[in-house]
Fold these 3 entries.
Entry 1:
Amino acid sequence: MLSGQRVEHNKAGKRVAVDSRKRHPADFALWKAAKPGEPSWDSPWGPGRPGWHIECSAMSACYVSHKFDIHGGGIDLIFPHHENEIAQSWAADRESHISYWLHNGHVTNNNEKMSKSLGNFFTIRQITERYHPLALRHFLIGAHYRSPLNYSIAKLETSSDAVYYIFQTLEDCKDALSSFLQEDTEKKEKAPKINDAAKECIKKLNVEFQTKMSDDLQTPVILTGALQEALKFVNSSSKMLKKKMQKKTQLQLVQSLLEVEKEVRKVLNVLGLLSSLSYAEVLQQFKEKALKRAGLTEDEVLNLIEERRQARINKDFAKSDEVRTGLT
């Protein structure tokens, strides 16, 4: 089964005393007897409620039938919950089949599982009051879904910077291409071939994305590999377009930038790292979250920047460093 455990290796009564009413020590309850103060329903076996495992089989059968592609759940549910779910679903329908089981690791706090009982958890709403939702998403997919992920402000800051860089790169690309796209619309010229660097960039991005996503959703590799190379290409090409060059070379660079940017957007869309808002609007949201974390207004930041500039002019480098530390 899922966990690889064998029935003969489990010791009956080791953790919980064996109920004498069971036909076999490994049997689990499909129907729990009613307890005072708990919801209960009448049944041929007396008042009670569904067992923990049968709930999931019943919901699956009701909404997606006993056959479906992907079943998720926490890694702690593999045994006994999901194995029991498989057993009872097979008993109800011999055609029962789930193609893929995806068991996720937990987000931890100080390497302990977050839980209400320990009081060491944060809600998504609490986190997104200070960090952009896309930064949180980047943080979560920055670890493999089956691995535990320790909640870390430093890592959230890193993810926030990473997503800000993505959107700043896309915004700069849009600005760099705007005048050329307007010209192309008016002249309706045939699109030139893209350059070799763009071809290689697109090839690496597509191969890595398809390979790693097909290999158990290796999102951390995608975030740090060919996607970063593609973003660097977009960044450098956007800057290069501002320089003087031959018209033919310029048009080829424009087309190359368009094609690479399109492939980058495809990857980001699948990863859920795009937004329905404009790039500029998302960047503004990131700035507002950063100001909120720092407890500053935009005017106060501008004043500090000016204070640092004056300190550098006056060669008061200690003061300059002090202000810079405060800004970062």
Note: The first helix runs from residue 52 to 64.
Entry 2:
Amino acid sequence: MDENGARKADRASGSGSPETPGAPEEGLPPVPQVPEKDLPPVPRVPGVDLPPAPQVSIEDLSPPPEAGTENPPPAAEGRNPFSVGIDGDAASGRAVSRAAAWVAPGVARVGVLFVNAYLVGEPGGPWALVDAGLPLSAAMVRRAAAERHGPESRPEAIILTHGHFDHAGSALALAAGWDVPIYAHPLEMPYLTGRSDYPPQDPTMGGAIAQMARLFPHGGRDLGDRVRELPADGGVPGLEGWRWVHTPGHTPGHVSLFRGEDRVLVGGDALATMNMDSWASHLTRERELRRPPAPFTPDWEAARRSVGFLADLEPSVVAAGHGLPMEGPRAAEGLRGLAGRFSAPRMGRYVGRPARFYEEGGVAELPPPVPDPLPRRVALAAVVIAAGAAIALARRRG
């Protein structure tokens, strides 16, 4: 396995104060805070290794373009009814079609409910789809691709940052329709070939996404012979000038994509550009750099290291799997700030002890689940309602 494809981690404990959101944008309500605490030390388990840190030289990356040389965004042409965020993009003149929004030169965002996919590549040239949205969203993604690249165009490949249901849900349907391959990191293969499920989500840590996660699946999927390993040299099939970097934590084989020429980062779920723990943020889509989606992140120390690595890239644009893209000094400064104050949730199944994975991928060991008070509360509420109904019925009969 190549230098970018595997990490050896020493399980050093993270430190820092709880993260704080960025300043609210004008006209938007402040986002409620979610209490957090510093990451506790992670115990060592003999004989279990994580992949080594990615070997990407920051000095080898090209400098950002000079001010004023970037391509301006196209004018707005419409809105995407499936994405709250597209309205904001259209208002700022950055919608490139009814179903896609401009992010950076050669990059457009397709918002599918609460998750993003990206069309990467200029119209008329080679392009790739990065992440594939939710199950049953293939038609919407195809429509966005046809509007941007032409009805007869097809991507060189589908690139998955990871295999969770909201990022790979329509990957097989899209790949079959376009007759193209799907690429992912080697450590994601067990979850994309039907050999393993992901660690169960943890709904006990509190916050909006934790409550919603009760309804989400955590199983793997079988993409058959469509799925292939990403090139060992860090190149991205069909995308010249882009490289993938290994950013584990949210999943063992999570990757992010980086274009050194103008320092554009497509980060997947290694981070988020919204506060997913806040109900208000799911409505306002206020831009802020935050940790990965908490209920599905089984290794917080690896996630902390990955955020630190991405911060060292000093991106000019940050496009994540959840939230609206961020650009300019706010993106790089916000990411550095997140890396400096990164913290795990204050409680949860994977907070004190991460899930363990086999060297070749797949779940090796899970920490025990923590008590979940919600079922008991629901049962108690049901008893109270039933008792009240029985008393009311008895009085009516009497």
Note: The CA atoms of residues 107 and 286 lie 21 Å apart.
Entry 3:
Amino acid sequence: MEFDLVDRGASSPEGNMKCVQEELKRKTLVMFSYETPDRTHINIRLYDPDGGSIWNNSDTHRGSYAFTTKTEGDHKACFYKTTVDDPADLKHHKVRLDWKTGVAVMDYEKIAQGKHVNKVADSLRRLEADLRDTHETMLWLRRKEAELRDLNEATNSRVTWLSIMTLVVCVGLCVWQVMFLNQFFQRKKLL
């Protein structure tokens, strides 16, 4: 992925951050590397879903980091230039980001070369890792679906009760209004 650092008119460099985020499962292996093609020095901060800082790197034009997620949720990487002399200058600074998760982190060609494993065994390992990752993802999706279904059912129940209460209040007001008007007209001797 490649993106530009842009000026958002903030007075501090942190105010001009460009953030990239991805929703990740718990205990997911993550590896990312970044570089600026024009060798502009930038700062990077990596945040967990709770907003806590996982890692930061200052004043460099390239770097990489790997970690395993501790919590489930949106993890984000934020980039910003340390000093901005001319805000228009930010438009010319690109950042290349390679963000890999799960099975994509493994370099099977290096494993095959390092252990002299033949290509068939390498393909089988790759398929096995893909299958495990797919299975874990399906289990995670099943849990998320159950959570969302429970939330949907609870919301449906609340809306039903709210509708019933609204109907009772409307009928009650209607009865009260008829009684009030009946008494009013009787007092005025119109009925």
Note: The chain is about 40% helix and 30% strand.
